[in-house]
Amino acid sequence: MTTTLLLDRANWDLALDANGNIAVADDPYSIEQDVASECRVFEGECYYDTTRGIAFFDILGRPAPVQLLKQSLVTAAKRVPGVGDATVYLNELTPRSFGGQVQFSRGVATI
């Protein structure tokens, strides 16, 4: 069983529980949230492991194949413990942003 700090879905910031403590999320939502978080990390942004993240500066705003973005998101999702395989579905793609879902055996993460 995995746990993670619960993030508010509207602003992706820490959430509080009914007692005013930092809230935590358990399976299965914790894995879905971890996948979504992993897919939002820019390359070099994680100070504890600068090799993690997606090279968004090389992809967004430039003519890059959609498959490159999808593969980068799949690779990021697979870094989360408990995620064996993932499929990315994009429903929004502009030069500066994207949106969609990452589906995997234990859930779905909205990106």
Q: What does the model show?
A:
A hairpin with a 4-residue loop joins strand 3 and strand 4. The relative contact order is 0.17. The radius of gyration is 14 Å and the shape is globular. The protein has one domain: Nuclear Transport Factor 2, Chain: A, CATH 3.10.450. The longest helix has 13 residues. The chain has 111 residues and is an alpha+beta fold.
Characteristic key phrases:
alpha+beta, two-stranded antiparallel sheet, three-stranded antiparallel beta sheet, 111 residues
Gross morphology is globular
Which architecture name does CATH use?
Roll
Widest sheet, order of strands:
3-4-5
CATH topology: Nuclear Transport Factor 2, Chain: A
Number of strands: 5
**Ranges with pLDDT <50 over ≥5 residues?**
none
Strand content: 15-25%
Helix percentage range? 10-25%
Our measurement of the CA-to-CA distance between the termini, rounded to an integer number of angstroms, reads 23 Å
Q: What can be said about the biggest beta sheet?
A: 3 strands, antiparallel
Order of H and E elements:
EEHHHEEE
Computed Rg:
14 Å
User: Based on helices, strands and strand pairing, what is the structural class?
Assistant: alpha+beta
**Tell me, what is the CATH class?**
Alpha Beta
The whole-number mean of residue pLDDT values reads 91
How many helices? The count is: 3
Count of individual domains: 1
